[in-house]
């Protein structure tokens, strides 16, 4: 994982348009090279086993999450609003997945969801849109 590449603030719907690159184990989205994604959404499926498979819905689509380590020992529940950052992976014959290296329960902060949409728009306008227009 190349941590010099920023984690893109994106929506699940945008990730569907990401294209795999031929090198660097990375993806491009409108000319932006990335390996990690930063998303927020509601947990709609929570695994009770050691597999740590969860599903996040952000209103534009769903993405599978893979949790490991200490994250598995926390009390995750369906309906929690969470922020996740992790490596983006496309698996053959399976839905795309985020291998989570940070997850935070934002449920106690009800304004976070509406703020998230604004953050994604702002990030697009400031950082990603100029690359789309090149």
Please describe the structure with a list of short key phrases separated by commas or semicolons.
RecQ-mediated genome instability protein 2; 134 residues; three-stranded antiparallel beta sheet; NA-bd_OB-fold; five-stranded mixed barrel; alpha+beta; RMI2; OB fold (Dihydrolipoamide Acetyltransferase, E2P)
Word description of this protein:
- This protein has a single domain, classed as OB fold (Dihydrolipoamide Acetyltransferase, E2P) (Beta Barrel), CATH 2.40.50.
- It is 19% helix and 36% strand.
- The protein is built from 2 helices and 9 strands, in the order βαββββββββα.
- β6 (53-57) and β7 (62-66) form a beta hairpin.
- It is globular, with a radius of gyration of 15 Å.
- It starts with 7 loop residues before the first strand and ends with a helix.
- The relative contact order is 0.19.
- Pfam families: RMI2 (PF16100).
Overall CATH class: Mainly Beta
Distance between the termini: 27 Å
Helix count? 2
Shape: globular
Tally of distinct domains: 1
Side by side, the strands of the main sheet go: 5-6-7-9-8
- The count of DSSP E runs of length 2 or more, i.e. the number of strands, is 9
What is the assembly state of the chains in this entry?
single chain
Q: Quote the CATH topology.
A: OB fold (Dihydrolipoamide Acetyltransferase, E2P)
Provide the residue-averaged pLDDT. Answer: 87
Task: Return the string of H and E elements.
Answer: EHEEEEEEEEH
Low-confidence stretches: none
Protein name: RecQ-mediated genome instability protein 2
InterPro entries: NA-bd_OB-fold, RMI2
Organism: Vitis vinifera (Grape)
């Amino acid at each position: 994982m190349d941590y010099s590449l920023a984690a893109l603030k994106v929506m699940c719907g945008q990730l569907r348009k990401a294209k795999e690159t031929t090198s660097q184990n990375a993806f491009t989205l409108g000319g932006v090279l990335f390996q990690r994604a930063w998303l927020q959404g509601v947990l709609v499926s929570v695994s009770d086993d050691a597999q740590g498979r969860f599903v996040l819905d952000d209103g534009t689509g769903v993405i599978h999450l893979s949790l490991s380590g200490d994250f598995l020992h926390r009390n995750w529940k369906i309906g929690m609003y969470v922020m996740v950052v992790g490596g983006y992976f496309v698996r053959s014959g399976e839905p795309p997945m985020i291998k989570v290296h940070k997850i935070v329960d934002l449920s106690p902060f009800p304004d976070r969801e509406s703020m998230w949409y604004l953050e994604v728009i702002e990030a697009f306008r400031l950082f990603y849109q100029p690359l789309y227009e090149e």
